[in-house]
Amino acid sequence: MAAISLALAYTLIHDRTTPDTIRLGTGVASVESKPVSAFDRSASSPKNQYDASSDETSLGSGEASFYGDELAGNRTASGEVFDPRQYTAAHRTLPLGSRVRVTNTRNGESVVVRINDRGPYHGGRVIDLSTAAARTIGLIQSGTGRVRLGLLAS
Asked: Positive or negative CA dihedral for 53, 58, 62, 65?
């Protein structure tokens, strides 16, 4: 599993054809964030069940948390300004610009986020979500929760 993840990460980093490539120092990068329903043509609502497809590679599961208004306006690792209303997330190793489906294993709700920051650096957490993403999958009340991650093909 680790070898597949590393190979996929290498491919994403070296693939210069992706429109999500962020070049630091050339201004504030931004990519429009969308809920899962915008990516999944079969979705009947923004809150849909996890549905792995051939265009998605499982990254496993773990604990997720979220960060919100207290960091609004700060620069992320990608160079863009953090906006808690966008569907973004922080991950320690995935290439910036990667799109990841995050599914709350407790309720089956999922959201697609774009990795634009590094972290989390607390506990054994695997991903830090923006407030909007955490709200979409029902993590606001608890603050953390178990999630499944799936890397979406560009």
From this structure: negative
Q: Are 119 and 38 in contact (CB under 8 A)?
A: no
Residues 6+ apart with CB under 8 A from 98: 12, 20, 91, 114, 115, 151, 152
Distance CA 127, CA 57 (A): 16
Phi, psi at 136, each rounded to 5°: -60, -35
CB-CB contact of 145 with 64 (8 Å): yes
Give the helix ranges, DSSP H, for the chain. Answer: 2-14, 36-39, 131-137
pLDDT for 51-68, tens place per residue? 455 589 999 999 999 987
The answer, yes or no, to whether residue 44 has pLDDT greater than 50, is: no
CB atoms within 10 A of CB 34: 15
Number of H helices, E strands in the chain: 3, 6
- Does residue 45 surpass a pLDDT of 80? no
Regarding predicted confidence, which is higher, 27 or 107? 107
